[in-house]
Amino acid sequence: MSHTMAIEVLKDSACKAVGMKQTIRAIKEHSATVVFIANDADKHIKDAIVNACEQNGIEIEYVDTMEQLGEACGIEVGAATAAILKA
After folding, report:
1. Taking the CB of residue 74, how many other CB atoms lie within 10 A of it?
2. One digit per residue, pLDDT tens: the chain, 87 residues?
3. How far apart are CA 78 and CA 87, in angstroms?
4. Which residues belong to any copy of the Ribosomal protein eL8/eL30/eS12/Gadd45 domain (predicted)?
5. Domains in the chain, ordered, with CATH?
6. Residue 62: HSE in the Cβ half-sphere, 13 Å Cα cutoff
7. Total Cβ atoms within 10 A of residue 11
8. Cα 81–Cα 83–Cα 85 angle in degrees, nearest 5
9. What is the pairing mode between strands 32-38 and 59-63?
10. What's phi and psi for 60, nearest 5 deg?
C-alpha cells in the first residue's frame, strides 16, 4: 500500500486507535490490522510500538510527522502512533 493511500485509509476508517496506549492495547488484543508511526515521534515510543508489531505480525506504515498523523486521525494535535482496527 502506498504511503498516501495508507493515510487515506486511516482518515476514512471509523475504527481506529490513536496514541501510544490505545495502539499498544489494540496490538496486544489482536484488533489492530495496520499500525502507523510518525517518524518524528520519540524513539522510546517508536521502539515500543515496533517491538509489539513485530511480536504480533502487524504491518507498520510510517508517516512523516506527528502533525500529519494527528490530522489523518481527525484530531487537532499531533499523534505519535495510530492503528486501524478490525471491524
Report:
1. 11
2. 566 677 888 888 889 999 999 999 999 999 999 999 999 999 999 999 999 999 999 999 999 999 999 999 999 999 999 999 997
3. 25
4. 17-86
5. 3-85 (3.30.1330.30)
6. 7
7. 12
8. 160
9. parallel
10. -115, 135
